[in-house]
Amino acid sequence: MANVALQLGIVVGYLLLALGVGLVAYRLTERSAEDYYLANRTIGTVVLLFTTFATLLSAFTFFGGPNLAFAAGPEWILVMGLMDGVIFGILWYVMGYKQWLIGREYGYVTVGEMLGDRFDSRALRGLVAGISLFWLLEYVMLQQVGAGRALESLTEGAIPYWAGATLITAFMIGYVVLAGMRGVAWTDTLQGVFMLVLVWVALAWIAVSAGGPGELTAAMGEVNPEFLSLGGGLYSPQYMLSMAIAIGFGVAMFPQINQRFFVARSERVLKRSLALWPLLVILLFVPAFILGAWATGLGVTPNARGNILPPLLNAYTPTWFAALVVAGAMAAMMSSSDSMLLSGSSYLTRDLYRPFVDPDASDRREDLVARLAVVAFALIALAMSLGTNLTLIEIGATAFKGYAQLTLPVLVALYWRGTTRAGMLAGVGISQAFYLLATFTDPVPATYGGWQAGLIGMGIGLVVTVGVSLVTRAAPEENADRFVTPESTDAD
Predict the structure, then answer these.
(1) Residue 445 covered by a domain
(2) Which residues form the domain of 352?
(3) How do 447-448 and 451-452 pair as beta strands?
């Protein structure tokens, strides 16, 4: 019982610290929608880098990553770490820099608002927002599932799953409602540094406790010889490439990530952050995946929820340190969910409430609706999380590939003046419909010659967007010049 009290005290202590940071940020936040959503576009290099890093790397990384490496081998570091880090780093520049220029010029808060204005289309704005919110709800649910399972495993059932999921939801609601983007960015920076340090200390601690890296790798090879050779795991190259590409492109359209394209203080801040991004991704994925792969040679087995990291920590580290690492994992989950809730509320208010319900809403009214939306969104996701048996990898990969269907049509719109409203509606709608049918129904196959439907859907979206645009004519009110922006001359 004393161990449970210590573990819970460490986790709750960390959550209270994060809430304290949010309260400080609340005192500095203006009561305007732009400050609540984007911190008045004043985020600097370190905070932008770490808020993006912490926002993206969540329960999918901390628990799903080791679970995947335990089952399929350490080569997934190449897919989830190196390839996705580089792919998103490139997209950060290609999409993010262009969006930053346009957002600064016209004051956009969401990608739906930007596209709706460019094509003079409430339907497109609502479609992009609806798709984004659909997949966002699933990914918020992933964090709550991860938190509930983590605390249940750490305390060996003393804290039930529902209580852990509810605890993290309550804290997230508290500081997101209070602090907005400024508080989220500050807590993300704290959480990003915290989880990065802890996962490397965990790797070193287990390596020393279990005989060193060489012995651990040798033991892994004895149990799973295929883990020592590239391509020797459970999955085909087509599957792995499909996942890497779809996840890398999907990240760029995650609302909480895409919205960060608008918040940088300057061009230099944006470019510094994107240059450092791949390094940070590798620094987190390498230890997380190695721990899962090493566990195969140690005789450690996943817990009842299918997670390998908590049993590994309980076996080779002290109780207090295992609790710290789980607190770090919960930091990862909170730093994803807080940003998702904030972005979800902005999509709901800016792209659905304002254009379809109350076009004349004041900034203060929109700010209030946004904060109420955070509460509603979090509670809906919590209810969903209490009724799911899906693994973290299944939940996360499905959402990533859903967002990937949006990326290529948006890229075409950003760079090709010939893109039309009809082309965008068709490209976004048809690719999303194909992916939904392939994911949730039997008649549409989920794979094509080993290639995942998520990747095929991306190709469909690109072809349809370009093809329909070529055979349709832009209406006079479509603002083709809106995406032609002057180059930045910011010094910093």
Answers:
(1) no
(2) 44-393
(3) antiparallel
pLDDT of 152 over the 90 cut: no
CATH number at residue 310: 1.20.1730.10
- Average pLDDT (93-121) is 87
**CB within 8 Å of 61: residues ≥ 6 apart:** 80, 284, 285, 288, 332
Residue 477 phi, psi (nearest 5): -80, -5
Could you write out the DSSP letters of every residue in 194-224? HHHHHHHHHHHHHHHHTT-HHHHHHHHHHH-
pTM over the 0.70 mark: yes
Determine the Cα–Cα distance for residues 250 and 270; give it in Å rounded to an integer. 20
Burial class (CB in 10 A: 0-12, 13-18, 19+), 156: middle
Q: Quick check: helix, strand or coil at residue 303?
A: coil
pLDDT digits (tens, 9 = 90+) for 430-474: 999 999 999 888 888 988 888 989 999 999 999 999 999 999 988
Helix (H) or strand (E) holding 452: strand 451-452
Spatial distance between the Cα atoms of 169 and 147, rounded to a whole number of angstroms: 9
Are 451 and 244 in contact by the 8 Å Cβ rule? The answer is no
Q: Does the residue 20 lie in any domain?
A: no
Least confident among 50-54, 67-71, 306-310: 50-54
Closest CA to 14 of 199, 194, 198: 194
Question: How many angstroms separate the CA atoms of 59 and 331, rounded?
Answer: 9
The residues, ordered by sequence, that sit 6+ positions from 357 with a Cβ below 8 Å of its Cβ are: none
**pLDDT band for position 38 (cuts 50, 70, 90):** low
30 pLDDT tier (thresholds 50, 70, 90): low
Average pLDDT over residues 386-401: 74
Q: Is residue 315 part of a domain?
A: yes
How far, in Å, CA of 23 to CA of 18, rounded?
9
C-alpha closest to that of 399 among 241, 240, 250: 250
Give me the chain's average pLDDT, please. Answer: 80
Distance CA 258, CA 252 (A): 6
- Answer yes or no: is pLDDT of 491 > 50: no
CA angle centred on 202, ends 199 and 206, rounded to 5°: 145
390 phi and psi angles, rounded to 5 deg: -70, 150
Instruction: Report pLDDT for 49.
Output: 77
Show the DSSP H helices in 210-352 as ranges: 213-223, 237-253, 255-258, 267-295, 309-316, 319-346
Answer for the pair 285, 66: CB distance below 8 angstroms, yes or no. no
Contacts (Cβ under 8 Å, ≥6 apart) of 113: 125, 350, 351
For residue 249, pLDDT beyond 70 = yes
Overall number of domains in the chain: 1
In a domain, 146, yes or no: yes
In the numeric block, which tokens belong to residue 401? Answer: 């590939």
Helix (H, G, I), strand (E, B) or coil at 58: coil
